[in-house]
Amino acid sequence: MVFEIATQPLREAAQAGAPGVLDGKAVAAALLSQVEDATAALAKRDIVPTLAVVRVGDDVASEIYVRHKERACAKVGIDFRHEHLPATATEAEVLATLRRLNDDESVHGILLQLPLPGDMNGADLLTAIDPQKDVDGFHPLNLGGLMSGNAVLEPCTPRGVMTLLAASGVELTGKHAVVIGRSVIVGRPMSLMLARANATVTLCHRHTRDLAELVSRAEVLVVATGVAGLVHGDWVRPGAVVIDVGISRVDGKLRGDVDFEGARQRAAAITPVPGGVGPMTVATLMENLVRAVCVRHGLLFRDGELIDAASAGVRFDSGVGLAPWRARPIAST
Fold this sequence. Notes:
NADP(+) binds at residues 181-183, 247. The chain is an alpha/beta fold. The chain has eleven helices and 14 strands.
């Protein structure tokens, strides 16, 4: 409701890809085009969407991921701030940085780049982020809002997967979906979103018995473990839709959790690694930032234009349950 995606451009982007391949790059580009339209409209109101990324230490992969986000922001008109703390920083220093950004009115979104060095308590630090600036969607209030159906900011990877499935015309109602991996970042929110779309969901993890048997019954399969080649191609049910979230470097090459070539012979559609889920995650992060900006300023982005939420009969309030805020019709109160 806050940021209404025009679905037709995304569908056209999905249809332009190779048969049987879910092209996350193309769909992400179509989504980012709409984000750029929104930031341009915000600029006319002298509002500059701003994302602050906090990175601790010198993890090479984290540095690369931060650069990806910075480039994405630059392409769509989002101001980017990189708060880089040394590996010797204390948890108290990281917390102080997050609190400073919480209080900074010019910052609309805050992201704590994971993993953190040493024995820092990532869960505590993520909880310290203002839930209205939590563009990763990991704050307990936002996760609770996902459970109750009131979340405005949802975890980027599973939300990006749902956008990709919708753009690709994948019908989920009544389908048996199997999710492998139960992290708070992907697996658990992914299961909730699939169930919300009326799929019947089985959530698997390292202790799941007969994994191959469960995979063979999946009409929609989402794998997010970070274990390269975990799912063999011949496990996949013929005609299934396969979403490979995992990415690992093996012998200098990037590989997913699924045997791509083997699974492609049986699946109706599959995401490649790289180029599938990754671009959708970044695009959804940009979308979440615009959502946060709109809520802050009482705006909706609809049909390519910004409108005042109140004039559209919508208000943002604390809602019910654990959601920090939600959009709902004024008339319903």
